Each structure stands twice: as C-alpha cells, then as structure tokens.
C-alpha cells in the first residue's frame, strides 16, 4: 500500500503542476519544464519498481484515480509540447525574417550572364 500511496502522491503532484499554464518568461519556463521532467522520471522509477498489492476496494479506487490522472497528464503534456513547438516555429520564422532584412543589399552573383545593351 505504501508504494501505491507514493505513486499516487507523485502523480497528483505532476497533475497539479500541469494545471498551471506554461510561463512566458524563459527562465520560468525552464524551471517549469525541469519540474515536469523530474516528476516524470520519479514517477517512471516508481512504476518500474512497483509491486502490485492485493486487490482491495481502497487500492482499486486509488489505482482508478491514478489511471484517470494519467490520462489528464498525457493530454496536458501534449498541449505543452504543442505550445513549445509553436514557439520554436515562431522563433525560427523570426530568425529567418531578420536574416532576410539584414541581407537585403547582398545581390546575387552576375557572373556568367550575358547582358544585351540594345534593349
């Protein structure tokens, strides 16, 4: 039962943390993602070493709660991943636009072209 209680506590902590929105500040975002990473690793370790206790009403209800929270966690992680992907795409676009503006005076090489001056 103790293993299930610890697993429930870590899962609940991860679920509660994912309820918070992704911070816009870079340092706060790194901290937010570090906490998620830490809790996921801790939870994975607990799941790897978890031994199934005898099935009682209490353990079954706890396991059902954990399974429900797991679905919510997966949905929230997908949303965080999508948000980070959009931010990366926007950052790449921003860098590309800045590069285009910075190199507006760079002309393509005219070597090898024939210029007809009659027209």
Structure overview:
With 119 residues, the chain is mostly helical. The protein has one domain (2-102). 73% of the residues lie in helices and 0% in strands. α1 packs antiparallel against α2 and α1 runs parallel beside α3 (57-102). The termini are far apart. The model has no long low-confidence stretch (mean pLDDT 85). May act as an export chaperone for the filament capping protein FliD. Belongs to the bacillales FliT family. Pfam families: FliT. It is found in: Cytoplasm, Cytosol.
List keywords for this structure.
mainly alpha
Secondary structure layout:
Layout: H1 2-19, H2 26-48, H3 57-102
Pfam families: FliT (PF05400)
Keywords: Bacterial flagellum biogenesis, Cell projection, Chaperone, Cilium, Cytoplasm, Flagellum
Protein name: Flagellar protein FliT
N-to-C SSE series?
Answer: HHH
Would you tell me the overall average pLDDT?
85
The backbone outline, from C-alpha atoms, is rod-shaped
Structural class comes to mainly alpha
- Over the alpha carbons, how many angstroms does the gyration radius reach? 26 Å
| Alpha carbon gap, first and last residue | 90 Å
Task: Summarize it.
It holds the Pfam family FliT. This protein has 119 residues and is mostly helical. The protein is built from 3 helices and no strands.
